[in-house]
Amino acid sequence: MAQPDDMLDDDDYPAYTMGRAAEIIGCTPEFLRRLGEAKLIDPLRSGGGHRRYSRYQIRLAARAREMCDQGTDMASAVRIIILEDQLEEALRHNADRQDR
């Protein structure tokens, strides 16, 4: 079983409640719900049905908030972020293959 310190160092560990995630990002819980509906983030649900966010998801939401604050509509911001992440992953994959 993972130790608590290991989990908190894990970018994908859902350590943050919706309220805390919204506070960190500087947005409303509704903004986070809409990002979920737009399929940018899919928070884990606790046993009681509460949304729990990881640091990675918080970073994605913060990027979306920044883009929306600059005038980009949410659907476009979500698409851009997804494409940027796919490109980053492809570049990492290519770099790994070249190192072999």
TrEMBL record:
Residues 15-83 form the HTH merR-type domain. It comes from the Bacteria. Pfam families: MerR_1. This is MerR family transcriptional regulator. It comes from Paractinoplanes durhamensis.
